[in-house]
Design a protein that fits this description.
Layout (H helix, E strand, L loop, with lengths): L6 E6 L4 E8 L3 H9 L1 H7 L6 E7 L6 E7 L5 E12 L3 E9 L5 E15 L2 E10 L2 H32 L1
Antiparallel strand pairs: 1-2, 2-8, 3-4, 4-5, 5-6, 6-7, 7-8
Pfam family, one: AHSA1
InterPro entries: ASHA1/2-like_C, START-like_dom_sf
Organism: Mucilaginibacter rubeus
């Protein structure tokens, strides 16, 4: 594993935006798949000991992903994502909100913009997350930072396993 990979997590309260830059020791097509395919997302997109379970995902502009993060005692926290833009292998955008189990969104939400690039087998993912509400962003940021960092560590481990299979 390459321990020299970039990881930057910056909160800009004035812009109500979180900026995340993360490098992965894997080629771009695999990293893209890890962020855009349900069967791979469900393997890493929850901080342990929680797990992720997607009810459905339709990765296309106008499509949605509806999923839950499930705690070890079975409590579910649902999220609804709506894909607003997709440029294969380089960018996608979505609108994210918490939701109840019946898909009713809890607004306000956030706008996520993912950008992918690769150089010498290292894939860089830049994510900006604009929060519609500063209050929401401040309430979530500390826990989100820790949880997202754990999720990305899950992804590092999974990418090693998936790279060996290809």
């Amino acid at each position: 594993m390459n321990n020299d990979l970039l990881f930057d997590f910056t909160v800009d309260k004035a812009a109500q935006t979180v900026y995340i830059t993360r490098e992965f020791d894997a080629e771009l097509p695999l990293v893209w798949d890890a962020f855009t395919k349900q069967e791979i997302l469900d393997q890493w997109a929850a901080p342990a000991p929680m797990r992720c379970k997607t009810k459905y995902m339709n990765f296309e502009v106008g499509g949605r992903r509806f999923y839950a993060m499930i705690s070890p005692d079975g409590q579910e926290r649902w999220l609804l994502q709506k894909y607003t833009s997709i440029t294969p292998k380089t960018n996608f955008k979505l609108y994210n909100s918490f939701a109840d189990k019946d898909e009713n969104p809890e607004l306000p939400g956030s706008e996520w913009d993912y950008n992918f690039s690769e150089q010498n087998g290292i894939t860089k993912v830049n994510i900006s997350i604009y929060n519609e509400s500063l209050e929401r962003m401040e309430r979530l940021t500390d826990g989100f930072s820790k949880g997202f960092t754990l999720m990305l560590a899950n992804l590092d481990d999974l990418l090693i396993t998936l790279s060996r299979k290809s």
